[in-house]
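Extended Data, panel c. Modelled sequence:
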Amino acid sequence: MPIVQSALAPLFLLIALGAWLGWRAYPGGDFWPRAERLIYTLLFPALLIATLATADVARVTVLPLAAVVLAPLLVMAGLLWAARRRLALGAPAFTSVFQGALRFNTYVALAGAAALHGDAGLTIAAVAIALMVPTINVLCVLCFVAAGTLGHASIGRSLRELLRNPLIVGCAIGITLNLSGIGLPGVAEPTLRLLGRAALPLGLITVGTALRPAAVLRAGRAFWLATLVKLMLLPALALVLALLVGLDTQTTHVALLFTAVPTATSAYILSRQLGGDSELMAAIITGQTVLAMLTLIFWLGVAV
């Protein structure tokens, strides 16, 4: 447990720093939204390419990892949709609960994997991203469509955006370079690794700047429902599956990170664009980020 705490503490301190900077509106203007775009479209893809292009991906137990990180998502998505009438939530609120229950904060998950297991953790995390990002995006778009908040004219656009997702593109490039034997020749590797090093600390700070504490005070049972699924039920199911399939400790830790981290800050933007309840989404993002400081330590401590 002390090892887990010492590994995760710097992550949450950077998030807290971001929250303070956001509260002080420093450095001002639209700096942080632009910084997050730079991180998402350049720095994180660079980190994924550098990691996957040079890693021994064959050492990652891909099928067991896929079972452990994808099965809980599919199960919880099905249960939420089956219970939507009993939950008595309006369509916009339900889509925000759905996103809050399934999406994961890539910045926190990757930083946690690196802090716990270094390059080996990053490699497993990159494979997890390649598996989870397309699955979650498809599930969430289908939820918006079925709930009626997303017009049919927007379906094609949403699917095109999925194919152009920088994280998916970065994973695809990295895996292609790895399997082709090209790797990262010359100065490509040190250049991409330098870019990648900036991604994790800056990404965590931007998580903090996106927090909206006032929104949590206005949240009701929908917030607690999404949080219960995201921070407790998903990781519990993932841990059971990890034990059943016999995952090693490193892979189990990464699987737990990706199922137990708070929901993605990008869910707020999607909620506004696709007809969700953006105020509820802001509350879910903020509340889960704060509560995850405790629940992540618990789940990783259980798996040590």
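The longest helix spans residues 106-147. This feature is highlighted in the accompanying rendering.
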